Amino acid sequence: MNNTSIGERLKYQRKIKGYSQEELSGRTNVTVRTIQRIENEEVSPHLNTVKLLAAALEVEVSDLLPLDDPREETLKKKWLLLIHATPLLGIFIPLLNVLAPLFLWIHKKDDNPIYNEHGIKVINFQITALLLAVLSFISLMTVDLFGFILFISIVPICVGIVIFNIIYVLQKDKCYYPLSIPFLKLKKKNVPKALCFLIGISLLASCTGQKAETIERLDGSLITKDSLGLKIDQLMADAKITGMAVSIFNDNEPVYQRVFGYKDFPKRYPLTDSTNIYGASFSKAVFGVLVMKLVEDGVIDLDTPLESYLPQKIYEYEPKTRWHDDFSSLKEDSLYHKITARMCLDHTTGFKNYRWFEPNYKLRVHGTPGAQFGYSGEGFIYLQVVLEKLTGKGLDQLAKEIVFDPLGMKNSAYEWKPRFDKDYAVGHNEKGEALKKDKDNEPRAGGTLETTAEDYTKFLTAVLHKKIISEASYDEIFTPHIRIRTEKQFSEGAQIVTDKYDSIHLGYGLGWGYFETPYGKAVFKEGHGSGFVHHSVLFPEVGKGIMIMTNSENGNSIFKELLEVAMADIYTPWEWENYIPYDKK
């Protein structure tokens, strides 16, 4: 294969391993499109790209690189010109005369010995010039005539030497920088000491930007973004979580947005921030804001029985969907007529979570509406159906007009859209096996939201900034309308009364859960279904929060530790949420 191109070599090695282009992409940071372009001879890859591909294929770099590289002369001229010319940027931006060639040298020094040699000479000269400039300034302040002459001479002389070498290197591939102090030498053993000096200069130049590399937690302590990323990688590996998106907010703005893992683990397709993710009960948080906008517009009132808005009984309407607007069973119920919008949003309707939890699959009210918390997607559906009949618009249209379009959430909807087919995540069971994607859901306020990490981050940012609706409406949403005194949110624990959460005043607002901390109120919303598990919690009084989205059935097994590490949040009632850590199960 000595005379074959890199494209042919890559294709040959890939097929020997039995990898598709998508599988090879999943094993590297190289996109499928780039692999296709390399194999089709449309692009000449960078050496670092070749190294990544070689490592994934478990072959030597020389097995992919052709022996003769016809690009070498052209690339040499281009990179040499950049190495010698970029120091001129230092005329406009201090220290860039050193930093620009330094970054180019680090990037190219292993590609060709001439890049290494010229880069070292340029960097040595520019550091020397920098020191001379400092000395000339000191001379100007201390020595009358000589100091002035030295000060006005340094910059023109250095610029002249740079221009001379730009011309010289283009003609002869050689350079000459007189009087340079050898901070960097060609011997590799001397490089680390010189690099420490240069790194020191770089740190001084960039110290004002260090805040952006850290996240401030609730207690004021800081965590670096890099260390958080490493911790998330470790948690995902230990708990066997396939894919995750995390956004963290400081001062009401996202300061950390990263995705990890895969949208399809068996196929090793990587997750991105624009990948469609099933939102599950994140739907309810969006719906709560939507309803409050309609309250502000006078379409509905929170405390007027919903039945009174319709010209006929809800059970008399002919169903238009497969099941969710069929309320015929309520004809036998004597309590449903008391239900208000507030009761639907704070989960006190008395409806089960969904009608299939009833022995006969028929919806009915348990207890007096408004009296007791009982998580219910059916309550949200009932309110949705009433609003659809009142406005003459479907849920997806209302959400698009009120929430999605104003916030630029272009990849969000309450039903599957054909455009989502190009990039979507599948859910996974606890073994990491992919589950079939459900694409035929009809829009339901309780749980059919399709969104992306990027879009839902936009939504939470808008909530923190109190957009879409007024501050008064957000205060209404983020007020505990019902106290919660059960051991768990679901299953048998939902029937056991406890005072365990009295200290945090656990309760429910309108579409959002509520508890109190030393840093003010906290509001949360979770999501769970079809192999997706999510959690979000905002601390609106201090402008902080976190969003976690996973496509793993066991995703919530790291939520407790992740909240503590990323946010110093030790207040979220993780046992009530059943967020049992993976190492405690």
From TrEMBL:
Molecular function terms, GO-annotated: DNA binding; hydrolase activity
SUPFAM superfamilies listed in its UniProt record: beta-lactamase/transpeptidase-like, lambda repressor-like DNA-binding domains
Membrane topology field: Multi-pass membrane protein
Residue ranges of every copy of the HTH cro/C1-type domain listed in the record: 10-64
Pfam families hit by this protein: Beta-lactamase, HTH_3, MamF_MmsF
Transmembrane portions of the chain: 79-106, 118-139, 145-170
Domain of life: Bacteria
Alphabetized SMART domains for the sequence: HTH_XRE
Endoplasmic reticulum in keyword set: no
Chief subcellular location: membrane
Keywords on record: Hydrolase, Membrane, Transmembrane, Transmembrane helix
Location within or outside the cell: Membrane
Protein name: DUF4870 domain-containing protein
Source organism (scientific name): Flagellimonas pelagia
Organism classification: Bacteria, Pseudomonadati, Bacteroidota, Flavobacteriia, Flavobacteriales
